[in-house]
From TrEMBL:
It is an enzyme of class 5 (isomerase). It catalyses: a (3Z)-enoyl-CoA = a 4-saturated (2E)-enoyl-CoA; a (3E)-enoyl-CoA = a 4-saturated (2E)-enoyl-CoA. The keyword Isomerase applies. One of its GO terms (cellular component) is peroxisome. One of its GO terms (molecular function) is delta(3)-delta(2)-enoyl-CoA isomerase activity. This is Delta(3)-Delta(2)-enoyl-CoA isomerase. It comes from the Eukaryota. It comes from Actinidia rufa.
Length: 236
């Protein structure tokens, strides 16, 4: 599912295995547990890198699992949405900088997970960022739209991500300011994230101050994250 490694004050959270890293309750709970450990073990100055093995960073929510529930209320999609929202809140409130090292495709909820980090570095030769909902006729809940709105700009970029379902390569995402830098291969992408993490650690910022400033920056988003998925579930 996932592993958490600590190198000094640098935490590395890895989605393990060669599958699509679909965000089902088991994986979401494992990520949540890892983030809880990061919060409890972080020192005054720490940083987090999140990455993944295989072709996919994450291909979104596990819709096959969700659709196997009651088609009228579908509590399973509500459950996964609740758990993902909780993880996004954690990433916004963690008392340390966060970096996503994207080594493969990140679609829909997978892209939401990626951009919830402070920095994104991405593999140039494989993978794309993709809000696929329009292409598969699924609505996007307001809280998820709020995440994209808070992390993607200007307006034309927001339009292309949400209203054209563009599949953004690393180079394209970098031009839009979504990605910090693009790199050749998975290993170099992770190395770039480590270099960035070490650079941030050298600043010796107080993590609690860092987290407080971030929460103030995204106060509107935090309010939006209190939304319920009920109306989205009814469409599945």
């Amino acid at each position: 599912m996932c592993s958490l490694e600590k190198r000094g004050n640098l935490f590395i959270l890895t989605l393990t295995g060669s599958d699509e890293h679909r965000l089902n309750p088991t994986l979401l709970d494992a990520i949540k547990s890892a983030l809880h450990r990061v919060r409890s073990e972080a020192t005054a100055s720490s940083a987090l890198i999140t990455t993944a093995h295989g072709k996919f960073f994450s291909n979104g929510l596990d819709l096959d699992w969700a659709k196997s529930g009651d088609p009228e209320i579908n509590p399973r999609i509500q459950l996964m949405g609740f758990k993902l929202r909780s993880i996004v809140k954690d990433l916004i409130s963690l008392p340390l900088p966060t970096i996503a090292a994207v080594t493969g495709h990140a679609s829909a909820a997978g892209m939401i997970f990626v951009v919830s980090h402070d920095y994104v570095v991405m593999r140039r030769d494989r993978g794309f960022l993709y809000m696929s909902e329009l292409d598969v006729d699924l609505p996007i809940p307001p809280w998820a739209t709020a995440v994209i709105r808070a992390k993607v700009g200007p307006a034309a970029a927001l339009r292309d991500v949400l209203l054209r379902s563009e599949k953004l390569t690393a180079a394209e995402a970098a031009k839009l300011g979504i990605v910090e830098s693009a790199h050749d291969g998975a290993e170099e992408t992770v190395r770039a994230a480590v270099r960035l993490g070490e650079e941030l650690l050298r600043r010796k910022w107080d993590g609690h101050v860092y987290g407080q400033i971030r929460m103030e920056m995204f106060s509107d988003l935090l309010r939006a994250l209190d939304f319920s998925e009920n109306h989205v579930a009814s469409r599945l």
